[in-house]
Amino acid sequence: GDIMEETGALIRKRRATISTGKCVPLKQVNGRSEVDESVNGRSDSGNIVTKRNVSDLPSTTSKERKKRINVPSDRQSCHRLQESLLSSASGYRNYRGVLNWCVVMLCLTTVFCFSRYGILVDPIQVVSLFIKDPYNMPAACLVIVSNVFIVAALYTERRLSVGCFSERVGLLVHSINLSVTLCFPVTIVLMVKSITPVGGASALGVYTVLFLKLYSYKDVNKWCREMSHAKARSLARSLSCSSIPRSRESGQDYQVSYPGNVTLRDLYYFVFAPTLCYELNFPRSPRIRMSFLLRRLFEMLFFTQLLVGLTQQWMIPIIQSSMKPLEDMDLPMMMERLLRLAVPNHLLWLIFFYWFFHSSLNFIAELLQFGDREFYRDWWNSETITYFWQNWNIPVHKWCLRHFYKPLLKSGVSKWLGQSAVFLASAFFHEYLVSVPLKMLRPWAFMGMMAQLPLAWFVARFLRGNYGNAAVWLSLIIGQPIAVLMYVHDYYVLHYREGEY
Amino acid sequence: GDIMEETGALIRKRRATISTGKCVPLKQVNGRSEVDESVNGRSDSGNIVTKRNVSDLPSTTSKERKKRINVPSDRQSCHRLQESLLSSASGYRNYRGVLNWCVVMLCLTTVFCFSRYGILVDPIQVVSLFIKDPYNMPAACLVIVSNVFIVAALYTERRLSVGCFSERVGLLVHSINLSVTLCFPVTIVLMVKSITPVGGASALGVYTVLFLKLYSYKDVNKWCREMSHAKARSLARSLSCSSIPRSRESGQDYQVSYPGNVTLRDLYYFVFAPTLCYELNFPRSPRIRMSFLLRRLFEMLFFTQLLVGLTQQWMIPIIQSSMKPLEDMDLPMMMERLLRLAVPNHLLWLIFFYWFFHSSLNFIAELLQFGDREFYRDWWNSETITYFWQNWNIPVHKWCLRHFYKPLLKSGVSKWLGQSAVFLASAFFHEYLVSVPLKMLRPWAFMGMMAQLPLAWFVARFLRGNYGNAAVWLSLIIGQPIAVLMYVHDYYVLHYREGEY
After folding, report:
1. Which side of chain B, N or C, has fewer Cβ within a 10 Å radius?
2. CB contact under 8 A, A70 and B372
3. CB neighbours of residue A316 within 10 Å
4. What is the value of pTM for the model shown?
5. What is the pairing mode between strands B26-29 and A26-29?
6. Of A483, A129, A123, A438, which Cα lies nearest the Cα of A304?
């Protein structure tokens, strides 16, 4: 009796494993229940062939199987109730090949253009975007000076860790350091005449990233001190190396605990690592894969070429030709130019996304043996605007969640207000990175970001599934060039029209 | 002891089920084993968010969970060892959004073109492709005459079912009927001057489909007779309605068994049904979904417009401009024109594929409540040429497998020879459908199909994964326009150059 009960329990347990595991569920198709093979988007092509070929033969008992050679009746039934794969009802979602198709088409177009027009990139023009005078590079100097703020943050943390600074003094020093990190480059960019807009934007980008990193550094070190003060040292150690099997597996991987991490080497690793969230013990990849590194390097070079070529040959002519309609506020012509600008602008954005978030960040991560390569998630499938913003830029999203949204929630702010605050902060930084280098304060980037809130509400409320996804794509394709045209128009009016009068 | 053994066997069986089932395997990432969530391409976006948000919090015991509000240390570790989604190592394959992107881009381009150039389709030109003289429509007459062959096949089967014809006589009559089905339209198309190439190709297409359907009809009925002669009537009934739960579920769904199916109504249902393989009891969908039907109808109309517009505005100008280089055998110019032709030709083929295999066949199937909508499989992911040919056209593939390849194997032919024979037959029909309407016998279509065999060997031998997939795409993009240019050139030389001299 006992044995029976025990084995019965064992079977029930296994059954539970089966049902909670990610097995293919029995799916209701047209009111009838049947195992839907095609739903499984994960199995590779080879598997599908095998499976399908097997299912072509209807299941026969062993008795019937013997007769198969004589009685060919098992070939009679060769249809079964099912939806086409492209119907959304089929639930099929494996379109890796479509991505490859896009790559093949892009390469063919590039080859065709190069064979027809030759190499179109003008390198001197590119360099002149960044610097006006090779003996006077203020943007580069600005980036070099940023080391001061890194060292200041480390100094403050050192003092805090040994107790020389109280928490209050530490917070004050950090706040001053962080606000100077944001304000100092602004004054330089606005004051120095020889800084170009592109050079200024790059320098400001570096400072913004540094600001976010140092903010995270300050927060995490504070949490570590809070933990030690709570006299939960044992807990702290087990949490700081969260995945215990890792340290168990590879004995040589030593785990750093709190005061040991406040070193120059540790901080500079974090500054160069492709993440904005500080952690005492980052997951590390076991070795540098040379072939991976070289492929990413090749992609970086190829896509840089493509980005510059497309901008010079496609974007700039359209932008120049849309100045006249924009000045005259000629609405039909403006719409036409906007649609013409939308396609190259969107392609540039997509190539930029791949170039930065896949090629470049993976290249840096591989060099530094940084293990977490989640720089983006599947935003291309996003069916709501919110999902897109949560998944296209994971380093920033992670930072916002960890150092802004969750602390806000903890301080009693409502969920909706917290989300709006994140969008507001994001809008501020977008404006900061565009207005300051162009040396003109216009609200377009800010408004573009804030317009996402009602848009997100609208899409989530009225559109579902593939229609929602199409709406996200449309907002990307149409929304961006509007903002671009606005800034370009204002910049043009400010700098070139003045000369005319 | 016996009970232990039995339950032990049961557990082993369950374990086998788990390991062969489609559960997510423990995946080796960078040498460490961990359950990879991102692999699961099937879960929809919403699910991923939930799962990810949960995984943001490292797993904590209930003791620690209580302390979470006071000790914020669970926020410390926010990275884990993982690959980027676009890296092939991640195994992620859900790119439904990329397909939507293609649709959005296509619609935007169409809207842009229409808003700029107006509606470009010339309907009179389209009609004139099919008929020269509205009072003399030989292609339409040819299609109407095809009913004779359907009735002849039914008559033969009736005679066979009651025993008036012996199997031998039946085979002879069927063979005559089938060969006349193939040869009769050829003589008409070649003899009647007023048939246009497009009209002729359509009529021949109808006759080819009819030939394949009647061949299948003859085979299946023969199998049914073989079964009844084997005195296995009870077995026959259980097999003819292969999915037993269906008949059990809905009592009103009666299942036809052999001699009852030889009716005019049954045969005409099969003739119009979107399949080439006859079956006594087709799976039926429970009702006609009006919204589905209307969406497919809209797609059919929209894509017809697009197909005609693209051909008239994009294809024909390029083809006309490539006649001169082709005549002079100017190789660099020919290459350039080929590349220029490749993109519109490929887009047309893709739109045609969707228009025919998804919209049109689903529309017909919905009207006829035909249940099996598998008209294509995931050929866009194919990593070998063979996989592409096995999956892009399922009705033909199913027919070849059931009525040509498997009988060949059974008669002792080797697997490789059987595959080559299928390609040979396919090449014959491609040639048949192109050469006869153009009234010129050129080997390009035949050679194009036969060239797939060495190409398939090459791709399978040297290319894997995404590279194999890219090779399949390239062969589609480059291969087709070569054959198109060949025929167009020869047709042009034959019909227009003659007039010059």
Report:
1. C
2. no
3. 14
4. 0.78
5. unpaired
6. A123
